[in-house]
Amino acid sequence: MTHAFAQLVERELAAWRRDLAGLHGARDVAMATAVLAEVLDPADPEERFRQLALWELYLQAGRDPMLRSIAEAWSDGCTAITAELLQDLGIPPEAARLLMLALEGVLLHNLVEQRTDSRAFTAQAVRTLLDAARR
User: Fold this and answer.
1) Average pLDDT for residues 31-53, to the nearest whole number?
2) CA-to-CA separations, 31 to 36, 41, 55, 77, 84, in angstroms, rounded
3) Which run of H or of E encompasses 88?
4) Most confident residue range from 25-34, 91-100, 118-127
5) CB-facing half-sphere around the CA of 103: CA atoms within 13 A
6) Do residues 57 and 67 touch, judged by C-beta distance below 8 A?
7) Cα dihedral value 107, 24, 96, 64, nearest 10
8) How far apart are CA 29 and CA 124, in angstroms?
9) 118 in Cβ contact with 41 (< 8 Å)
């Protein structure tokens, strides 16, 4: 399980960087909102199942100390990538971890509940979070 989680996290960090590449150099909150909303509301069933597996392993890290460092590497990696890509929007690096935690909450909500209004909710939530992080 440790090896599988480590591989999944490695792939996820590469995918996170790739999927958020559209944020590089972004100075427009609307553009950043669109990019993040798409990533945080996966329409592809295969992507949804991959994300669910990743989160299940993340939760298992709360019970299995051998997985904890991998979970931390995933969180730290996602936060670092997000901070780097959002710096041009005026979001300070110290706000990146809180922003990342909130964005992950939106993603989990979408993965589990699959509501019909998820894209609109996600865009509104992302816009609100970005505006708050910029202040």
Assistant:
1) 90
2) 9, 16, 27, 23, 16
3) none
4) 118-127
5) 29
6) yes
7) 50
8) 12
9) yes
- Give the type of residue at 116: T
3-state secondary structure of 75: helix
Residue tagged 């069933």 (tokens): 45
- Cβ-based neighbours of 76, under 8 Å, separated by 6 or more: none
The pTM for the full model equals: 0.86
Q: Residue 94 has which token pair? A: 């110290």
Residue 26 sits at φ, ψ, to 5 deg, of -65, 130
The H helix count followed by the E strand count for the chain is: 6, 0
CA 40 from centroid of its chain's CA atoms: 7
Nearest to 74 by CA among 12, 20, 23: 12
The pLDDT tens digits for 68-110 are 999 999 999 999 998 888 888 888 888 989 999 999 999 999 9
Q: What is the pLDDT of residue 27?
A: 72
What is the token pair recorded at 109?
Answer: 């909500």
Q: Assign 57 to helix, strand or coil.
A: helix
The number of beta carbons lying within 10 Å of the beta carbon of residue 95 is 19
